[in-house]
Sequence to fold (166 residues):
Amino acid sequence: MNNEKEVFYKAKNGSKIHLKYLIENNYPIVFKYVYSLTFKKELSEDVAQETCVRFLENISKFEYKSKTSTLMITIAGNLLKDMYKKNNRIRLESELNMIHEADETSEAKEILMAMDLEYRKLFVLKYYYGYNYNEIGKILGIKEGTVKSRFHYAIKNIREEIFNDE
Fold:
């Protein structure tokens, strides 16, 4: 297809082919993002699907300011945040069991899952997706300075966690 901005506006103007293209290309990105935050396949699928529904329902309200994946990750992050608030921070035993059953990355997953959701989002966006501080700020709806501050605080806590375990 043509460049993404053009595809986005064609989809916004009612082109089902272009809309399908955007959904099919961005669903896996959204799923991986949510999964890297929750490590729950079923929840990740649900949030990714709901993200696509919200994107479809509201595409007429959106403007193309950055990649469609950035917009959809923002929607997914907000959905996940709402779910966590509603369920008083989903930290189910199955999640913890999944972490302990993991292979060589279980310690990293354990540290990541012990983090507050807001800090976990920062790490996933920075290290898994490679976004810079400015882009992370736009996705999360916070200032770049706040991203840097939270990131610094999170790293400090991780260092304390690692060195206290030794």
About this structure: The first helix runs from residue 4 to 12. The chain has a mean pLDDT of 81.
